[in-house]
Design brief:
This protein is an alpha/beta fold. It is built from eleven helices and twelve strands. It has two domains: about 10-105, no CATH class; about 105-300, Rossmann fold (3-Layer(aba) Sandwich). The strands form three sheets. The protein has a seven-stranded mixed beta sheet with strand order 4-3-2-5-8-11-12. The protein has a three-stranded antiparallel beta sheet with strand order 6-7-10.
Amino acid sequence: MASETEIHAIPVTEVPVEEALLLLDELKLRLLESTVTTHHQLESIVSPILRSRTCRRIYSGCEIIYRSVLTEFGRIIAAEPTPEHPMQALATHCQDIRQRWLEGPRKILNYLQPFLQRAHTVLIHGHSSVICDSLVHAFAAHKMKFIFTEGAPLFTGRQSVAYVTARWEEKTGNTDISEYLSIIPDSAAAVTIPSVNFILVPATAVTISGGAAGMIGCHQLAILAHALGKDFYAIAEVFRFSRIFPLNSKDIRPTDTDETASALSGDTEHTSLLEYIPPTRIVMYFTNIGLFPPVTAADEVYNIFFGDCSGKNPLVK
């Protein structure tokens, strides 16, 4: 039985940062068209946009934007009870968040490069364009081997190999990177991990406990990595930070129900392609606001959702 924690849906597959950017663009335009003087009026404008059905795959990002906009409005009113252009100031605030989220993948790439440049073999589970772009960038600096798990039943390994090969060909005009890419069955992880430097996975959510939600198979890889003395790293942009507090994988509810049902057709034992990775199994998070061990990541999530509203907004630092 799932525990009695508050549960919000988490996406199974990668949500491109472009979805969050489009949401911020829509909100910015709506704010510029509005005349608002109270929190209640602002909520009536912001809520319908951020809680629409089209935003369900970035629910946590919507919550972050909602809190940030209302907090910023409070600061504006506190500084000047009758501000001349409050909506213009809020639109500028949304633009600041947008710019930093747009720069997020590049910042993660920069944080990840020193680790990749010291490695000779990396194991990747789950598909992420941010990870794949980082691999291409690292390979340009020195030749190294990338091993992808099959990633059944979504077969993310094939997606990643195709993406990396295409990006390398786009960058250099050839496909010589393909000989350094390989796909292994998910069941071969234990015999492969001893030969890699570290394991890298995309987190679809970073929870308030410092744990993560990831594609099914992440937890067993984290357990194997811990047992075999290898580092287990996760990457996540800040709009994936979530205030959920799952106790186990049954507390993780996916948004991609149609995709899950299709991938698991005929499987009566599993109902989700997501699972929970406890913070004790994760060595480091690579995010667009910094590198964090799980305990610090938990603090960052808490500050975003429940922190002191008078402090500096971690979204725009």
